[in-house]
Design a protein that fits this description.
heterodimer; A: 281 residues; MetI-like fold; 15 helices; B: 14 helices; 70% helix; globular; disordered N terminus
Chain lengths: 281, 322
């Protein structure tokens, strides 16, 4: 591919820089607005400035100072706890299942797996109403269970890990078996150590996906204290309709943790997508 | 997609692991059966009843909810808006993603920087994205109109015969709403498909391009003769999942209009009403959960048909040419 446009590197950087501005600009504008004084946001002079002068943390204090109405730390803690719990649950449960579908023989295995794969094309929206009723009937409504269990049930991780486990040579497993390892031992000593890239990819995507999830947390909880950050932001917006300073401060607070996680893990993430065909869905 | 569905499991040549296999699969199967399989079936069941959340009884009505949806003008408005959104987002988004991937695969320096920047919006929650873009789209003091105003002003000052700039009603004029939602969606999602296209481009060997260059093909010809046909599996995958995702558009309209107090819940003149939002409004605002479920299944049926059509069209083309 490199040869397609090799000649004109300069002509390439110009549109690429413009595209970079398009993708980065709104995020920088969010930060810029978050640090502006309210008067500067709406006045003609200050409103066009990218560097706030003077810069103020007033908006952030405004956001954090209303813990009764907008418990943003509680929302952050909820998001963090739920994302970690879902990630942990998915990694454990899905790797066990992927092992069963790739390395163990049991009656009906391939039929069950085909069923898992088939459900991956079911739009998530279709599940919302029945899951909502189920959660009410199970007594999980407005609990952490409602935020964690439905988010951990997808077949995707099983499918992804199974495809990866299949690439691990059978000989290694047989050697472990001769050394007296049972299925759990084979998983622990052979499969898991060799599958770290796939597990890391699944873990990072599950974490980011859960952190950003919107429809589920919106419908499966209803008390202010059980909300997650993305839903909390919309509650906040309902009140601060057009007060963009506090709104952008709250949006920045929600966006910064995932952005940092992405920047730290970006190599894994981008490689993971190309390995697995998973694009943050 | 095909490459993901194929590949039979290589199982050891020995007797069945029997119960062990089931036990390993069981924890996931319990979650999956409860929160995926059961809801799929339960949703169909719900859709066959007149099911009001607060009512004591919910009578069986057969396919009445589906019939009601098909003769409901608002359902058709929602469907039309959704199709319009898909038609705007899928081709535009995929062109942007492919363009970025082509540029990234050709650039020699700063590739990682560009890649990170283009991908960054993908990791942000739709709630944050929409709150941010509602500010950028603000008619009076939004960033977009601010800059468009200065560009028009600058062009006028150098003597171009342009009319004075009128701020554009990105979110208040019904005809602008879907294009505005589409633009923020392309901004939000283009990086995801870009990485997939980039991976697809990486599988095409350099020797194809070298041979074509020796034959005197220019960049344009090389793209249509080599890149485009060899990229077909990736394109199919990206298109199928873009359509699947775009048809379910919900957060954009919900956060932009429904979650904002005082305005119409589905945008000016229902211009932001999508199928998923209509399902939500019927199910969770009107409490007509049976009707909401029927709308969800109609959405599912449409998406399923479209997916099959795309597979047929794109895979048969691939076979005919290769």
């Amino acid at each position: 591919m490199r040869n397609l446009l090799r000649r004109s590197q300069l002509g390439l950087h110009l549109p690429m820089m413009l595209a970079a501005l398009f993708f980065l600009g709104p995020l920088l504008w969010m930060l810029s607005t978050a640090f502006k004084a309210p008067a500067d946001i709406i006045s003609g002079l200050g409103s066009a400035q990218w560097i706030p002068q003077p810069a103020t943390t007033e908006n952030f204090r405004n956001v954090m100072g209303k813990a009764e109405e907008f418990p943003i730390w509680r929302w952050t803690a909820n998001s963090l706890f739920v994302s970690l719990a879902v990630t942990f649950l998915v990694l454990v449960v899905d790797s066990l299942a992927a092992f069963a579908y790739s390395r163990l023989r049991w009656h009906g295995r391939d039929k069950v797996f085909a069923l898992l794969v088939a459900t991956m094309l079911v739009p998530g929206q279709v599940l919302l109403i029945p899951t909502y009723l189920l959660i009410r009937q199970l007594g999980l409504f407005d609990t952490y269970g409602a935020l964690i269990f439905p988010a951990s049930a997808s077949a995707f991780g099983v499918f992804l890990l199974r495809q990866f486990f299949l690439t691990i040579p059978m000989e290694l497993e047989e050697a472990a078996r001769l050394d007296g390892c049972g299925p759990l031992g084979i998983m622990r000593h052979v499969i898991i150590p060799l599958s770290k890239p796939a597990l890391a990819t699944l873990g990072i995507f599950t974490f980011m996906g859960t952190w950003n999830a919107f429809e589920g947390p919106l419908l499966f909880t209803d008390s202010t204290l059980m909300r997650t950050l993305p839903v909390g932001i919309t509650i906040f917006q309902g009140r601060y309709n057009i007060e963009y300073g506090p709104l952008m401060a709250a949006a920045a607070l929600a966006a910064i943790p995932v952005t940092i996680a992405f920047l730290v893990f970006q190599r894994h993430i981008i490689k993971g997508i190309s390995l697995t065909g998973l694009a943050g869905r | 997609m095909n490459r993901y569905l194929s590949g039979a499991a290589k199982t050891p040549p020995r007797k069945s692991d029997g119960l062990t296999g089931v036990l390993f699969a069981l924890p996931h199967l319990i979650l999956f059966a409860t929160f995926v399989l059961a809801p799929v079936a339960y949703g169909i069941y719900i859709s066959l009843f007149r099911w009001h959340v607060l009512a004591k009884t919910h009578p069986f009505v057969g396919l009445e909810n589906y019939g009601a949806a098909l003769s409901d003008d608002i359902f058709w408005i929602a469907l039309r808006n959704t199709v319009y959104f898909v038609v705007l987002v899928v081709p535009l988004g995929n062109m942007v993603s492919l363009g970025l991937a082509l540029a990234l695969s050709s650039v020699r320096r700063w590739g990682t920087f560009y890649k990170i920047v283009y991908y960054l919006p993908v990791v942000i929650s739709i709630a944050v994205v929409v709150v941010l873009w509602r500010w950028i789209y603000n008619t009076e003091i939004g960033l977009l109109n601010l800059y468009l105003g200065s560009v028009v002003g600058a062009l006028r000052s150098i003597g171009l015969p342009l009319p004075p700039f009128e701020p554009l009603p990105w979110l208040s004029n019904p005809s602008w709403v879907m294009p505005s939602l589409a633009m923020l969606t392309v901004w939000w999602t283009a990086g995801g498909n870009m990485v997939l296209y980039l991976a697809g481009l990486g599988t095409i060997g350099d020797d194809y391009y070298e041979a074509a260059s020796i034959d005197g093909a220019n960049a344009w010809q090389r793209f249509w003769a080599i890149t485009w046909p060899l990229l077909r599996p990736t394109t199919l995958f990206c298109l199928v999942f873009s359509v699947l995702g775009a048809f379910q558009v919900f957060g954009q309209s919900y956060v932009m209009f429904t979650a904002v107090q005082g305005g119409p819940v589905s945008g000016p003149a229902r211009s932001g009403l999508t199928l998923a939002l209509y399902m939500y409004l019927q199910g969770f605002r009107q409490y007509e959960i049976g009707y909401g479920a029927a709308i969800a299944y109609l959405l599912f049926a449409i998406v399923l048909v479209l997916t099959i059509v795309q597979f047929r069209l794109l895979s048969s083309q691939g076979e005919a040419k290769s």
